[in-house]
């Protein structure tokens, strides 16, 4: 299967594209965002990497057809989990938060929580392909990101917001001028996951409090999340506030501990040779 068949995209205008892996039919299917700038282009999250994302972007002309336009293309992972980082190795420039550099550089499929089944792939990307052989390939990040870093696209700036909880290196990218928030898995319109290896509930509560603050200070109008559909500021406020209320209860804390224990055991069994 070609890259042109594997992916599909939708233009949201103003140089922003929403890309998805058509045949990865799972709740884990991540949104891939492509943002064109006047001097720098950025891919935010890269999916599984089963087919070449750069080839798709080029074949579909998503960065334009001007032969003189040679902007560098930077792939940023909002965090290291496999559904967001699997395609990073396809890019020459790669950015991730400093807390998860080692996980990517070492190809640590425990920390990337690699867990893929054949039933999630509606059509195999190549003859004989099996999910059990899938691993996140090691990649050495070229851009080690920290809180407050600014990614300058020329006509846009994206500010790195370190928002741990879902993972220790989770980030959001904030386009302050346009009030856009690329939120990765920090927040999306679904059940938020705080029970994976390197998840931390108290950090997640703090991150959600910060999200509420962004809404209260009118710094976000639209959220472009790591999964599911986009949504607005009011919905962001409700989701983040609901997590804070739920996570602080005793039953929620016990449930999180139980799920975390089970997830760790399952992932170690599935990725026995991964560093932990």
TrEMBL record:
Residues 29-227 form the Metallo-beta-lactamase domain. The lineage of its organism: Eukaryota, Metazoa, Chordata, Craniata, Vertebrata. It comes from Sphaeramia orbicularis. CDD domains: MBLAC2-like_MBL-fold. This is Metallo-beta-lactamase domain-containing protein. Pfam families: Lactamase_B (PF00753). InterPro entries: Metallo-B-lactamas (IPR001279), NDM-1-like (IPR050855), RibonucZ/Hydroxyglut_hydro (IPR036866).
